[in-house]
Amino acid sequence: MTENSPDKDETEVTYVSKFYNCPKCQKTHSVRLPANLAENRRRYPFPYVFMHSTEGKANDLVTLLYIDAEMQIRGAEVVELEKSNIISENLAKEIVERLTDKIMDLEEENFQLKGLIQNLDIQGEEESASEEAEEEPVEELELDEDILLEGEEESGTEEKEEDLELDEEDYIDFDEELVLAEDEEEQGEEEAEEKEKDVAEKDLTPIPPDLPKEVKKTEEIYSKTPQMTQTPQPQKISLFFLSTIGPGEKKQKLTVKSTSLISELKETVGNLYGLDPSNFHLSYAGLTMDEENPIGDYNLEDNEEILIIPSSTAG
After folding, report:
1. Number of C-beta neighbours around residue 231 at 10 A
2. CATH (residue range 236-313)
3. Strand 46-52 relative to strand 304-310: parallel, antiparallel, unpaired?
4. Which of these, 281, 241, 311, 245, lies nearest to 113 by C-alpha position?
5. What is this structure's pTM?
6. Tens of pLDDT along 149-172?
7. Which pLDDT value is given to residue 2?
8. What are the extents of the domains in the chain?
9. For residue 204, which phi and psi values (nearest 5 degrees)?
């Protein structure tokens, strides 16, 4: 009799625990993922789908995680199923994964076509600008230096002649003004000496004892008056934007103001990546960012990452 031994060909699957922020319940959940999940993937980040349940329901939620090559969760989306009792977990996962891959392929093709169109438009504008520059040469104006020098010499001689021509009446008026100025200075000195004598002869009055009360009153009045306050200046934040649309990671760094709205930020990101703002969302820490909120409401710090995800996969 021989005892049954486990099959040596069986391999034990190791798991790792990861945490993500659920955009549906606004809480942090943990999920166990196979350690070799990121091997041999066509693109990064790649979608990973699993089903779970809410209270009183069974397998009514499908969670879609975006995982990078280092097994870090870059984003999370939740899809609610209306009739989960007629669909199996494996079938739901397979359907969602295939649809997500197809959507990302189409987004990548759209991204490449937009880039090609933009390059063609730029080349056409450069060619038209070069043709216009060749047709319209710039005319240079040459000024005659001799004419400029003659004009400066004439203006200088006229000023000198005007300064030198003085009548006898001008001399007389000038002398009279000097005499009057000297008389006014002497009178001013005499008046100043008389005032100093009057001040020296008078007794200095003591400071009234109620002066501190008046000072306190003025301080109270000053404290009650509204003071000018400075409005806080908008801060600038340097952020990394990581696109999940298409194969490979496309990362760009932008410096934005804390007062900029998410809708304005989507316009800038769309121009940078050649995307329509209505076809993608901005996601941070697993949350889809509201377009009506300013970027400063999310308390972001420098060099943090914001994920660009297709709008068709958002829950």
Report:
1. 5
2. 3.10.20.90
3. unpaired
4. 245
5. 0.34
6. 555 555 555 554 555 455 555 544
7. 37
8. 15-105, 236-313
9. -80, 125
